[in-house]
Design goal:
The protein has 344 residues and is α+β, with helices and mostly antiparallel strands. 58% of the residues lie in helices and 6% in strands.
Length: 344
């Protein structure tokens, strides 16, 4: 039987879900003043997903923390915002990832095997400066690392023996985050109507207002007017939309997006604001990197985006259209499109 603390830490676990079900809570129960703390924490989990993209860990009251998870799921489902389904799932998965960093290797292995069916074994092998503590079957590895763009996650760059990929504790925790994100996403994205009592509906309305106030910043429905968004090449549009949706972008993807926006005329402050919605945002570091690319720091070299062939090599090229077949650089695409729109 799972403990209250473990259930509160990882409320998406099968045993935690079963435990909550045994309590037999109803919507009418939640309206009772004794559950005000649960509702507030549930509302806070959703607001944290909207504003920062990562829910905090609050284990002072384990029962409140546990029960607030299905309440937050209910709020998200009631809002019926497709984009928010993904952002909330990422927010909760990022919360779990922070907790996994401090878990013993045995606990991580047990969770991976029992909850997600991984073929995973504990090892202890040092190669250079890296200490590998796990080996996972390549199928489980590929299932969760396929969307990662960094070269270090490519299978050809991993140590493999007899079909098993060696993993550090950091690696295993990051791959588990992907599993957790998918599971939570499936919990909230089921299409069903929820009829909520007025006190709960008021909280949903508050969250909807908060989301609407941040919708443009989060979903990329609006860009600064100095940039003609209709003229963006497919690769840059995809990179931008992925950034706003919380998708983990590779170094090349971020560099291509940033250098493109700089050369397309967007101001430094506006670019910094774009990156403010991602989970690992550090304003001082981000501003320094952007200013470096803009030629305001370091070598004072103003960088242009990589060529189309370089973007293809790094798998940043995305759904090229007919114009892409005729150009060799994303800025060339943009200039042609801008000229066409100006003529129209």
């Amino acid at each position: 039987m799972i403990s209250d603390r473990e259930a509160a830490k990882y409320p998406f676990l099968n045993d935690a879900v079963t435990y909550v079900e045994t309590l037999g809570l109803t919507l009418e129960n939640l309206v009772d003043p004794s559950y005000t703390g649960v509702l507030e924490r549930g509302e806070r989990r959703v607001s944290q997903a909207i504003l920062s993209g990562e829910a905090t860990v609050e284990l002072e009251d384990t029962l409140t923390e546990l029960l607030s998870f299905p309440v937050a799921n209910m709020f998200i489902t009631a809002m019926a915002e497709e984009y928010l389904f993904r952002r909330y799932a990422l927010s909760e998965a990022a919360r779990a990832h922070e907790l996994l960093k401090d878990e013993a290797e045995e606990r991580i292995a047990k969770l991976a095997r029992l909850e997600f069916g991984w073929d995973l074994r504990l090892v202890q092998e040092r190669v250079g400066e890296k200490l590998y503590r796990f080996e996972a079957h390549f199928k489980d590895y590929l299932k969760n690392a396929a969307s990662f763009r960094e070269p270090e996650w490519k299978l050809v760059n991993r140590l493999i023996r007899n079909g098993y990929v060696l993993l550090t504790k950091r690696d295993a925790s990051r791959l588990l985050q992907e599993e957790i994100q998918r599971r939570i996403g499936s919990l909230v994205s089921k299409r069903r109507r929820i009829s909520l009592p007025d006190p709960l509906r008021i909280r949903v309305n508050n969250l909807q207002k908060l989301f609407d106030e941040n919708r443009s910043r989060l979903t990329g429905q609006a860009l600064p007017t100095k940039l003609l968004t209709e003229a963006l090449p497919p690769c840059i549009r995809h990179a931008f939309q992925g950034l706003m949706a919380g998708r983990r972008a590779s170094h090349m993807e971020r560099f291509a997006l940033t250098s493109f926006l700089i050369n397309a005329g967007m101001g430094i402050d506006d670019i910094v604001k774009l990156f403010a919605s991602i989970t690992d945002f550090d304003e001082q570091f981000t501003r320094y990197q952007i200013e470096h690319i803009a030629g305001l720091r370091g070598s004072r070299t103003r960088y242009t985006p990589p060529t189309c062939s370089t973007l293809k090599t790094h798998r940043v090229c995305y759904e090229p259209d007919r114009l892409c077949e005729r150009i060799k650089h994303p800025l060339s695409y943009y200039r042609i499109k801008v000229r066409d729109y100006q003529r129209e």
